[in-house]
């Protein structure tokens, strides 16, 4: 497997990196959507995440990488073998979902080799099984076929994949953080899937000379000597990894006072977001940010920093306001949460 570009070596794109790191601290925030120009580090950041994340405990030999410490959410095989199962440390999965993937490849299907050679009906897990407890990455997510979009919406909502076909009836856990990237010029994302992303960030091509030069220098150094470049940044990635682990441990103790909840609700009311998913995501993301920063309590500063990512994709289009959603969120923040 080729070495991924180090996460800590990515130049700029601070909002994107913040969103990805917070989703690693608290997966309940939901997925991350990254929209922007080509060649701005979208897929690089997601693939760098795989090497950055600390390893997780999983049941040895389990195709779904079940957590041995969560008896209520294991697959039927692990549940039946509770007394004999052993745990080991495995990398957190970051699984690519190609645009051309078939439904069988995504959800799983009949294991044809075993069916033909042994006459057995056995289930061959798909990409959703591999992504359980990790990240499912869809590049050019706005070009994904409609039937796969519907499938992802169902599984993301239930946390479970149900396969009933070819004489098989299989149900297994499939909880993952959905990460999508794309170029808005190539098409919009369906609203039903857009709402399933907890955070949405916009990236653009750097416009200042020093940043552009730095990006080219680092990428060129990486391509010429991948091992040496990764070794150079290994210490920076290790510090980030420790910070993620500390934030996860600190997260349950972070307080969200009523004042912060009221500010989050006011902000969503001011922007006219539909439903309450905006408030829930904003509060969860602000809590994760506080834990990542080492703070004991969520305050206005945390809400200010994360609100654009949590709310910009939840706004209705206003025919009387030609400004973009990011500008509307910034105006509301300045009015309700002045620095």
Topology at a glance:
Layout: H1 14-25, E1 31-36, H2 42-52, E2 56-59, H3 76-80, E3 87-90, E4 94-96, H4 103-107, E5 108-110, H5 112-117, E6 123-125, H6 127-131, E7 135-139, H7 146-158, E8 160-165, E9 168-173, E10 177-182, H8 191-194, E11 197-203, H9 209-224, H10 226-250, H11 258-271, H12 277-293, H13 300-311, H14 325-336
Parallel strand pairs: 1-10, 1-11, 4-7, 7-10
Antiparallel strand pairs: 2-3, 5-6, 8-9
Question: What report would you give on this structure?
Answer:
With 339 residues, the protein is an alpha/beta fold. Among the domains are: 19-55 and 91-203, P-loop containing nucleotide triphosphate hydrolases (Rossmann fold); 252-336, Orthogonal Bundle (Helicase, Ruva Protein, domain 3). Helices cover 46% and strands 16% of the residues. It has helices spanning 14-25, 42-52, 76-80, 103-107, 112-117, 127-131, 146-158, 191-194, 209-224, 226-250, 258-271, 277-293, 300-311, 325-336; strands spanning 31-36, 56-59, 87-90, 94-96, 108-110, 123-125, 135-139, 160-165, 168-173, 177-182, 197-203. The chain has a five-stranded parallel beta sheet with strand order 4-7-10-1-11. A two-stranded antiparallel sheet has the order 2-3. Strands 5-6 form a two-stranded antiparallel ribbon. A hairpin with a 2-residue loop joins strand 8 and strand 9 (168-173). Helix 13 (300-311) runs antiparallel to helix 14. Its EC number is 6.6.1.1.
